TrEMBL record:
One of its GO terms (molecular function) is kinase activity. It holds the Pfam family APH. SUPFAM superfamilies: Protein kinase-like (PK-like). Residues 37-287 form the Aminoglycoside phosphotransferase domain. InterPro entries: AGP_Transferase, Aminoglycoside_PTrfase, Kinase-like_dom_sf. It comes from Actinoplanes campanulatus. Gene3D superfamilies: 3.90.1200.10, Phosphorylase Kinase, domain 1. It comes from the Bacteria. The keyword Kinase applies. Keywords: Kinase, Transferase. This is Aminoglycoside phosphotransferase (APT) family kinase protein. The keyword Metal-binding does not apply.
Length: 331
């Protein structure tokens, strides 16, 4: 996926990064330039390279966006969030995640944070899912639900950023988060199809349901099929953790289809998660979380410089569906 946030670097810079992380003996020879490095193109935010070291091992290099590119408010410091998430998950759960071989936030070799990790020899669930049988997809989605539940077992001390300081209440935290998204859209004059103040009124009319959430939990939030690596009926690794925060686990991506069927079928995920039927208040919270998601999907197309309008058009349709849900519920 093409995006102006992708911070591509020259072969010489990539070699310097490899030397810093693994030592000069692992730097590929210049004659190998056609073979040792290739860009992994399915990411949406960071640039990622698949690299073969001189000794034969394969690794992945991720580089954060360049500092002169404006990103959405919630994306500030995203690579630091990912590194913190990987540490938390490895220390407090059994959910498989990549090991960080080396991380550099000095900006000495390039103008952004970057890190290296082993290449995961597995299939991307989002890419291969249509080649799987319905039973196979259900098996993986069940396993994903169970893994997501374990991720949500990580407790925080406040709501919001992993690094703190955070908010004492989820209501204050979430309304700030969605308010930031709306401010991002207004700053770029993004046409979302609705008056921004109308969206704010919908949020204000519904936010009392957020008070039911009193314990900050780790929320991966971006756990879509395309961030799940699979092999032989098992989840091999969960990747891309830069959007995590402490909040309400019901905000996880796997629950989104409860509100909008266009996001798939949540049955197997919920079965694996072990979640019962949602209460009335939980359904109200879910509508707010889906509203947050589709607003981001619309507005981010401007910040990433998309020239193809497919995502924008698709997300605009989803926003219409969410707003109908609020109207049907009397908001």
């Amino acid at each position: 996926m093409e995006s102006i946030t992708k911070n591509r670097q020259s072969p010489d810079t990539l070699r310097a990064m490899i030397a810093r992380a693994y030592g000069p003996d692992e730097v590929p020879m210049p004659a190998d330039s056609a073979e040792w490095c290739s860009e992994l193109g399915h990411g949406w935010f960071n640039v990622a390279y698949r690299i073969r070291l001189r000794g034969g091992a394969q690794v992945v290099l991720k580089i954060a966006p360049p500092p002169h590119i404006e990103v959405m408010t919630y994306e500030h410091g995203a690579m630091g969030i990912e590194l913190a998430s990987l540490r938390l998950i490895a220390e407090q759960t059994t959910v498989p995640v990549p090991h960080v071989d080396y991380a550099d936030r000095s900006h000495e070799l390039c103008d952004a944070d970057w890190f290296l990790m082993p290449y995961i020899d597995a299939d991307n669930f989002g890419i291969v899912r249509d080649t799987l049988t319905p039973a196979e997809r259900d098996t993986y989605n069940e396993a994903l639900g169970a893994a997501n539940r374990e991720l949500n077992s990580i407790r925080g001390t406040a709501f919001g950023p992993l690094a703190g300081p955070g908010d004492p209440t989820w209501r204050h935290c979430f309304t700030r988060m969605i308010g930031d998204v709306l401010a991002d859209g207004e700053r770029r004059n993004v046409d979302i199809g609705y008056d921004y103040d109308l969206i704010r009124q919908v949020i204000a009319d519904s936010q009392d349901c957020l008070d039911e959430v009193t314990e900050p939990r780790f929320v991966e939030w971006d756990l879509w099929d395309s961030n799940v690596m699979i092999r032989d009926g098992k989840i091999i690794a969960i990747i891309d953790h830069e959007r995590a925060f402490y909040g309400d686990p019901l905000m996880e991506a796997g629950f989104t289809a409860i509100d909008l069927p266009a996001f798939g079928d949540s049955t197997a995920f919920m079965r694996g998660y072990g979640h019962r039927e949602l209460t009335t208040t939980e359904r109200r919270r879910r509508r707010l979380y889906t509203l947050y998601l589709v607003l981001i999907m619309i507005i981010e197309t401007n910040y990433r410089g998309h020239t193809d309008t497919h995502q924008y058009d698709w997300a605009r349709e989803r926003l219409g569906e969410v707003m109908r849900l609020f109207r049907q519920a009397g908001h």
